[in-house]
Each structure stands twice: as C-alpha cells, then as structure tokens.
Amino acid sequence: MDRIVTLNSRQEAALQAHAEDFIAVHKGDVMKALKEMIVLNGRLQEQLDGRSGLRPARRNDGEHLAFGR
User: CA-to-CA distance for 57 and 69, rounded, in angstroms?
Assistant: First the structure.
C-alpha cells in the first residue's frame, strides 16, 4: 500500500524539533536513535494490527513520506 504524507512548513518544523529531541535523548547518536525509532514503530504497528484483527503488515510496503511540498 502506497501512502504519501505531505507536511506543511509548520508541521515539518515540529517534526524536525521532535527528531532533534529524540536524537538528544540518545546523546547525539543518530544511528542509535533511528534504530530505536524503527523498533518502536514496529511494536506499535504490531499492537495496532492486533487490535484491528488484521494480520501483521509486511515490512517495506512502499510507504513514502513527502516533506515540505
């Protein structure tokens, strides 16, 4: 399933601020922050799938994010 998420400049700035905070929690280690975010998103997706009765989504399903358009 392809889904494009478009953010306006205010939303993009808010996302950037949250990303910087998350990286700061990991003492500036961007790779460690990214890996943890991937794991957290996977767990959340599994919980959502379980609540909705859907089977688990395949990874790399082609979702794209479009920022600042």
Answer: 27
